[in-house]
Amino acid sequence: MSVDYKLTDPCWVAAGNKIKQLLDASPFNNGFLATPAQQGAGSSAGLLANGKAAMELQGQWDPGVMQGLTPDQKGLGDKLGWFPFPDLSDGKGTKGAALGGGDGYSCSWKAPRAACADFLKYLVSADVQKRWAALNVGLPVTQGTQTAVADPNLKSLIDFRGKAPYVQLYLDIYFATSVGQALDDATANQFAGTATPDQVVKAIEDAGKNR
Description:
Structural class: mainly alpha
Strand content: under 5%
Oligomer: single chain
Number of helices: 9
């Protein structure tokens, strides 16, 4: 995979300026920088599940996670919904494209090759993926297993994913590890008010040069 870390297109700084506009509006809970994503009622998922937040940016795992974060152990049920991040009127990206993650597995170089390969084949087999899908905590990846998903939010998300022209892997995962970590750190610094959009872009570029 060859990645160009020269972020010279003005869209990178422009995106940072959009984030600054969001931060200036103070839309987050007090102490949000220390809020975990899924662990406990005080997490971002827990705040949403218990009516302490209106929405959460990303989290297709929420239907399953929230079941353990509400007093009745049932989550939000049909009160939970989702929508794709809105397109910007001046955006130049492909309409309908998505940004997301994906779980992956690999074998240690010390592992018996044949046995590990067989295990990985087992994980992505239709039977296992259908059982995973039926738990309603994630999205199956094997073709033909999507029908095992019952949660309406996840079903509509699968439909959206299937129609997307492409899905871009999260940049901190897509980039080389050191560059992805620099992106995460610099972005966190902007949210903490200690970095400007230009400084964020420079930090990523510098990491790309020194990788």
